[in-house]
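ok so for the tutorial part 2 we go from a plain amino acid sequence to predicted structure tokens. step 1 is just haveing the sequence, like this:
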Amino acid sequence: MKKKSDKVRKNKKLSKKSDDMSKRAKESHRQNAERYRTFIENINDGCFEVDLAGNFTFFNDSLCRMTGCSKDELIGANYSKFSDKESSEKVFKAFNQIFKTGEPIKEFDWQIIRKDSTKRYIEASVSLQKDLSGKPTGFRGIIRDITERKQVEEKYKNIFENAQEGIYQSTPEGKFIMANQSMARILGYDSPGDLITRITDITHQLYVDPEERKKLLQMIEQQGFARNREVQFYRKDGRIIWVSRTMRAVRNEKGQVLYYEGIIEDITERKESVARLRNALGGTVRAIASIVETRDPYTAGHQRNVANLARAIAGEMGLSKDQIEGIRVAGIIHDIGKISVPAELLSKSRKLTNIELNIIKAHAQSGYDILNDIEFPWPIARMVIEHHERIDGSGYPQKLRGEEISLEARILAVADVVDAIASHRPYRPTLGINFALDEIFKNRGILYDANVVDACLKLFQTKKFTLN
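step 2 — the prediction. this is what the tokens look like for a chain of 468 residues:
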């Protein structure tokens, strides 16, 4: 009897222990369920379940807020009630794909229509819901309101599509990844797709000088971007155009170039207008120069010689093309002020008196006064008034010293002295080029800029430059 009693007590003990474990499991399950319910009810994203027909069987408060409906209005309602025809078809196709493959779809978007008829964009991740036997019973998912993001995307899309500049992305190998309509229009293609399909080698199909793209990529490699680079492109019809190009590299976390993105602007008309203006300006400058030479036949050709030598010196010193052109133009008319000097003084065969010399020296100031109100692309008037200034301050008319004198004027000064000494004058025969070069060498760094003198000497002694 005692053994039987002990066994009963033991069984009761085990039963109580089992009950306790079951209660704890149920409590844990209840707590977990409560935790998940609280989580689902309080997240900003909408959670839902629909049956195979698309009718809502479960949803959280966030979904109610997104649709603007109460729980009573939403339960049993079909998703199509909140979508236009296009969006309903998009969701139907997604659900159908999930049903057939069993694979979830992540982050596909569509537009919903709220109860108040306003429209919002949402993004959803949806998976197939099954019962315990594995039979599909519906779909469950999470949706997020992405209206603000879509509006920003649409804003930039409009900017991209309507920009007058060409916007693009291209591979390091030279293929377009993306381009806007203006990019296609500038290059003469019917559409961005046409451009992307036909241009498979940007370097050789677009660039008139393929080396320009190599230089562009080298610049980007060194400083990360290239800004306002002017290059010539071929259009689809073979016509050559000028474009201003800004480009940068987009890299991955390892610093490797993924692609390039940039903007181009068609500047052909501007370049051609500048060329026409410069041609017209060139004619005017030559006409002005001829006036001086007509009054002073002994200096005929002097201004052209100074212009050519000054241009060569500037090139030897590595100045920009624009600076070189400005120096050339200034050289052609640097003695324009001599039209205010009596012709008989310019052609006197004897040594001039101090008074006569001072009258001639006034030509620098007179030239400035004539040219100062003319809008040149370069500081021509300043070059003209300073071309007789000297490094040590002994020149005229302003007694400027060193770098107070513009570099362009320092170049003109050397070119002017060399040609003047090497040329015939009424009051003396030519002294020859060697005498002229000795003069600037002896006064290198004293009267004349040392770097300018070095460049000039190199032209004559190494590169066999000659005066006409």
